[in-house]
Amino acid sequence: MDDNIYQVYEDEIQALEEEIKLLTEKYEDIQQESTFFSEEEILKSIKSLQRETQGESKEHESLSDLKAQLESLEKDLSFLMKLTGFQFTSHSKKTLEKTGDRTVQKHRLSGNCYSLSFQLEFQLLETQSKGKVSTVITDLSIIMESGEDSDVSKFVSSVEERGNLITFFRSLSTYAEWYEHRRRTFLHFK
């Protein structure tokens, strides 16, 4: 049993010696490469590096522009969320198929509209022909907390059949707003 322990240590020592040998060879190669550069090439490299660092300072200026643009977009998003009542909590996109003129992506989207939560799953078929791009929604599946409201279930079924997301979002926004008003009213009378 002690021989096995010594063998393990000897194998480890041999592996480390081989690694040291390889690293020494790499170091020597790097040293030889560095001696091949003339002073002129080294100066060119230094000047190039200085230009890059100056470019980074310009990049910092554009970074502040990007921050301002991001703040503006966040304000716009906040305004749209207040206006429509929609708040998206997650989104994922997966490309299922991609050829020269055809792309199929699977999207999953979840969120809330006022107090109603929803989940969407659909495939987006995008085709290009003669410079025109057309998109079609297929395999639309909507999951909503509609409670016992059969009208909402019927509406969701019809939207799923037609694959019309614009109709879904417009109608859901109006319905959820009035649903919220009714809920608050009934709470008031309880």
Automatic annotation (TrEMBL):
Biological processes per GO annotation: CENP-A containing chromatin assembly
Source superkingdom: Eukaryota
Residue ranges the record marks as coiled coil: 6-83
InterPro entries in alphabetical order: CENP-P
GO cellular component, one term: nucleus
Keyword Coiled coil in record: yes
Keywords: Coiled coil
The protein's name in its UniProt record: CENPP protein
Species this protein is from: Xiphorhynchus elegans (elegant woodcreeper)
